[in-house]
Amino acid sequence: MLYFKEDIPNKESKLIYIYRGITVVQMQNEVEMLMLSLGYKHLGQGLFEKGSRAMRLLFGAFCKYFKFRVHIEDYGNGEVKVTVSKDTTGLSGGAIGVNQVKNEFYKLSRAFQTI
To answer: How many CB atoms lie within 10 A of CB 94?
Structure first.
């Protein structure tokens, strides 16, 4: 079932989504399943990581590394607010690494609309 209602535009580099007909606990499970299906590890406290930070530092853009924070909260009226933010910039991979993080962020924005 599709719970997605709308995304809220913002000037920061965050994704903000509103979902209806789902509880916070159910949303946490949905987000974890989505992120795991995309190859991310759940580090706890809403942090998800894909790739190796050490390998990224050693080999730059040749090794992909992404880290995102997902914050889920009750938005009232039976709605849940999900905020996804970057927890890494990609600078350790140079300009290519920054672009890789930007592209992954875009992929996540599309994936979160499927919940």
So the answer is: 12
pTM: 0.89
Look up residue 19 and give its two tokens.
């979902």
Tokens of 16: 């903000």
Cβ(100)–Cβ(92) below 8 Å? no
Structure tokens at 40: 């991310």
What are the Cα distances from residue 28, in Å, to 34, 63, 81, 99, 114? 10, 29, 11, 28, 15
Distance CA 107, CA 113 (A): 10
Going from the first residue of the chain to its last (115 residues), give the mean pLDDT of each consecutive group of 10, the final group possibly shorter: 82 89 95 96 95 88 92 93 90 83 93 92
